[in-house]
Each structure stands twice: as C-alpha cells, then as structure tokens.
Amino acid sequence: MAVRAAALCLLLVHQASPAPAQAEPITLLITQGGKEIGREDFSLTQGRGRGATGTTLTATAKYPAAGATTRLTALLERTPESAIAKFQLDVESPSGTTVILAAGSGARLVVRTVAKGSESGRELPGGPDVVLLDDEVYSLYATVADLATPSGKRLTGIFPRTGRRVAFTAQREGPAGGDRRVILTGDLAGTLVTDADSRLKSLELPAQNRVVTRVK
Asked: How many domains does the chain contain in total?
C-alpha cells in the first residue's frame, strides 16, 4: 500500500509541474555496427518545474529515424546537488504506450509503470550515487559525466524500463572545464564526452556495438 500511495503521489506531481521553456534542441545520431538505427533530439535547461532550482533534460528518440515504429520521450529533473527530483519516460510502440515515472526520496527511488490494462509500483535503493539510464535514450548518460571524478566514482545505473541494475566506475580524464571525457568500466563499459554545459557530445558502448554522436 505504501508503494501504491507513493506512486499515486508521484503521478500527481508529474501532472502538476510544468517543465521550463525548451532550449534549442541538439540532435544525436545513433548507429549500431556502423549503420544508423535512430536519432534523438534533446535539450538541457536551467531550472525545474514550479521555478525550482536545478536542471531539466527533455529528450525524444525515434527508431528508426524515418518512419519510426518506436518513439521514446523522456524528462529528467535534477536538483542542484544532482539528485533525481523527477523522471518520466513515455514509450510508444506498435504494442501500445507505456509510461514510467520515478522520483527520489532520500535513500529510496519510487518507480511506477503504467501500460495498457496494467500498472505497478515499486521501491528501489536510491541515493546520490544512483543514475537513471535507458538503452535507447542516450542523452541521459550526461548525468554520469557530472558525477565522474578523476580518481573514479563508483555509481549504480538503474534502467527503469527494464529494471536492470548495473554497477560501474566513471573516471573523468583531463582538467575541469570544457569538454569532459569519461571512461566507464564495470557492468557498463565505454567512453562518453560532454560539453562544458553538461550536454552529451558522444558515447561509445562496445558491448552493444553502438556509437552515439552529435550531428547538430
């Protein structure tokens, strides 16, 4: 009952809190084995719903880019301390639409999933070292770069759509400021680069044979 009540409150918060105005979107090209499989448009703005401080990331990914059969729309709000304040992922596919909602509450992460004819809620371990990721929305990976350190920061990645959890280390290379290059090792391995405004520029995930690059 506690999870269900928390999930209901979570849904109401998402419906009542409009996000800040959108910035000019950035487009990412997603390839697998050297072939384009999709594209993603995202923007990162300062501020959150109801005038709260922090950041708001919005993203729309399409697979394939032309004549998409799967469309994902994500929203991630984070506090100035990089904590997860609000997350929503809408997945539209031939089988219907699924909506995943999540929000942090101290050491807990409350997740609610709503699909045609079903809904469920669950609590997961949360905290400052937890990041929310998705296998098809890659702008979310920029959060990892914000938390990475030169000596390596141990993080836990949660994929709310599938429930998968990964433990990995994010090590930042080079001086602070400007572009940031981060090496990922552990359950999640690869390399990512963000610009000075914490927006994803590129991502390589060898295990999935996927490369994500900025095209504009």
From this structure: 1
